Amino acid sequence: MSAISVDEVARQAESLRTEASPGRLQALARPQPFLTIEGLRAGYGAMEIVHGLDLHVGRSQSLCLIGPNGAGKSTVLHSIFGFARILEGRIILDGTDITRFSPQDKLKNAGIAYVLQDKSIFPQMTVEENLLMGGHLLGAAQARRAAERILDSQPRLAARRRHAARVLSGGERRLLEVSRALVMEPAVLLVDEPSIGLEPRYIDMVFELLARLQYEDGKTILMVEQNAKKGLEFADIGYVLVSGELALAGTGRELLANPKVERLFLGG
Predict the structure, then answer these.
(1) Residue 185's closest CA among 220, 148, 215, 146?
(2) Comparing C-alpha atoms, which of 126, 154, 262, 135 is closest to residue 213?
(3) Three-point CA angle 155, 207, 150, nearest 5°
(4) Does residue 143 contact residue 132 with C-beta atoms inside 8 Å?
(5) Residue of 236, 242, 234 lying closest to 265 (CA atoms)
(6) Is there a contact between 226 and 196 (Cβ–Cβ < 8 Å)?
(7) Which of 7, 17, 160, 255 is the most exposed place for a label (fewest CB within 10 A)?
(8) Bigger pLDDT: 10 vs 227
(9) By CB neighbour count within 10 A (0-12 exposed, 13-18 middle, 19+ buried), where does 118 fall?
(10) What are the C-alpha distances in Å from 101 to residues 80, 81, 92, 215?
(11) pLDDT tens, 55-113?
């Protein structure tokens, strides 16, 4: 099959649009919605990127957003954390409206942490110092205890705790980025492109960590992932975004089995 251009993928993705009823979206969030987005319109400055999005994910579930470039996937994560301008709609976490919380409040008081897309570590700092930066909203003693807890659970990072982060492999840096977000003990992890720039063995390592966080630690995970196949294999729920709107929603398994999704996003 010949390669499809980005513009052509976006055009053909329009054919995926179905009527995703509120009841269907809520039913995917089991046993009930923990994080909910209602009618989100958001963007940057005067530009609106996301148009009327609804989203539901249950406690300890994972949801993966896929779609063509420019579909608004990262803007959804930015909106939840407070980086984007919300024009309309609400974000509700466990019954509390957090729409207007600042990023600091989201992290400290709402239990939401954001793992940025890439290169967010401090390369001159050691692994340990990077982890301590993750607890900058805590007292020094509490941040150190949290960092030690993370190092106890991550032998690969513990062995390099005194090493400057710049000497880590790409996979180790990604592990550090995710681990630093855990210092605040969040209930919700927003993860932007966890596989970006990584070799296959490191991609597996990162997804194994995310699986442990979901299934052993009970984290709720919202993810944007360019490797749609890997993201949908991991996630309980998949949403396809097209031009800032929800085009299709289902379980990860259902989207993997959808021939149009496979052709446009899975390399089928």
Answers:
(1) 146
(2) 154
(3) 30
(4) yes
(5) 242
(6) yes
(7) 7
(8) 227
(9) middle
(10) 9, 8, 11, 28
(11) 999 999 999 999 998 999 999 999 999 999 999 999 999 999 999 999 999 999 999 99
- Paired sense of beta strands 220-224 and 188-192, if any: parallel
Provide the β-strand partners of residue 34: none
Q: Are 228 and 266 in contact (CB under 8 A)?
A: yes
Percent of the chain beyond pLDDT 70? 91
Tokens of 13: 């993705």
Q: How far apart are CA 230 and CA 216, in angstroms?
A: 20
Q: Which residues are within 8 A (CB) of 74 and not within 5 positions of it... i.e. 6 or more apart?
A: 117, 192, 224
Secondary structure of the chain as H, E, C letters: CCCCCHHHHHHHHHHHCCCCCHHHHHHHCCCCEEEEEEEEEEEECCEEEEEEEEEEEECCCEEEEECCCCCCHHHHHHHHHCCCEEEEEEEEECCEECCCCCHHHHHHHHCEEEECCCCCCCCCCEHHHHHHHHCCCCCHHHHHHHHHHHHHHCHHHHCCCCCEHHHCCHHHHHHHHHHHHCCCCCCEEEEECCCCCCCHHHHHHHHHHHHHHHHCCCCEEEEECCCHHHHHHHCCEEEEEECCEEEEEEEHHHHHCCHHHHHHHCCC
Question: Considering only CA atoms, which of 252, 261, 241, 265 is closest in space to residue 52?
Answer: 241
Domains, the chain, with CATH or none: 1-111+190-268 (3.40.50.300), 117-185 (no CATH)
> Residue with structure tokens 């659970």?
153
Q: Mark residue 165 as left, alpha or beta (left: phi above 0; alpha: psi -120 to 50; beta: remaining).
A: alpha
